[in-house]
Design a protein that fits this description.
- By secondary structure, the chain is of the alpha/beta class.
- It folds into two domains: 4-135, Response regulator (Rossmann fold, 3-Layer(aba) Sandwich); 155-226, Winged helix-like DNA-binding domain superfamily/Winged helix DNA-binding domain (Arc Repressor Mutant, subunit A, Orthogonal Bundle).
- Helix content is 53%, strand content 14%.
- A five-stranded parallel sheet has the order 4-3-5-6-7, with helices on both faces. Strands 1-2 form a two-stranded antiparallel sheet.
- The longest helix has 15 residues, at 198-212.
- 39% of the residues are buried.
- Residues 163-228 form the HTH luxR-type domain.
- This is Response regulator transcription factor.
- Keywords: DNA-binding, Phosphoprotein, Transcription, Transcription regulation.
Length: 230
């Protein structure tokens, strides 16, 4: 995997495309191959092959389909997330696969795109995710939080108390960053609002992952909203 700098990977962002539809793979590879700062390093037709190629090719970002034979995108994402140096993962889905998207994010994916997403948006997503930015708008974050809450059996009062205890270990600045993440702000937006550098914001977010024992920004947002602060 390429060594990151303050603004993302050094050199072109290395992308692996994992999809069981060869037409989709070819279209994505052709489209991404025209970008000077992106490099498609490989293609896989199922999740198992994708996991094996990640180990060999060390991509920065994996575009991961959900519904595939042999090993689906959900389990492949979980396996990748357990690697010592996991790549970023953007799951690809269709409009009716919301439940799968929620599960993928919980497994450690950094975002998702619909398969009919305009090419420019896909390119933007890859660049942002490679730079540590999730592809989750505030409205999407809110929807995912509501869906995850609806699936939980824990009473709201107990959930709120537990979330408040988790947030209590944060420093004042980390707490401010957590609230901003809970509102769906990007690193750049948090930096502007709190008058910090983007590398400093990234460092705070990384500490939030450790202190709150979470794997992505959606889970930080869930904790903030459960605590009644979002």
């Amino acid at each position: 995997m390429t060594e990151p700098t303050e603004t993302g990977p050094a050199g072109p962002v290395r992308v692996l495309v994992v999809d069981d539809d060869p037409i989709v793979r070819s279209a994505l590879s052709l489209m991404l191959g025209g970008q000077a700062d992106l490099e498609v390093v490989g293609e896989a037709g199922d999740g198992l092959e994708g996991v094996a190629l990640v180990d060999r090719l060390r991509p920065d970002v994996v575009l991961m389909d959900i519904r595939m034979p042999v090993l689906d995108g959900l389990e492949a994402t979980r396996r990748l997330h357990r690697l010592p140096e996991p790549p970023h993962v953007i799951v690809l889905t269709t409009f009716d696969a919301d439940e799968h998207v929620v599960q993928a994010l919980a497994a450690g994916a950094d975002g998702f795109l619909l398969k009919d997403t305009p090419p420019a948006r896909i390119v933007e997503a890859l660049r942002k995710v490679a730079d540590g930015e999730p592809m989750l708008s505030p409205s999407v974050t809110r929807t995912l939080i509501d869906r995850l809450r609806a699936a939980e059996a824990e009473p709201a009062d107990d959930r709120a108390a537990r979330a408040q205890r988790r947030l209590a270990v944060l420093t004042e600045r980390e707490h401010e960053v957590a609230l901003a993440v809970g509102r769906g702000l990007s690193n750049a937006e948090i930096a502007r609002e709190l008058h910090l550098s983007i590398p400093t914001v990234k460092a705070h977010v990384s500490r939030l992952f450790d202190k709150l024992v979470v794997t992505n920004r959606v889970q930080i947002a869930i904790c903030v909203h459960d605590a009644g602060l979002g």
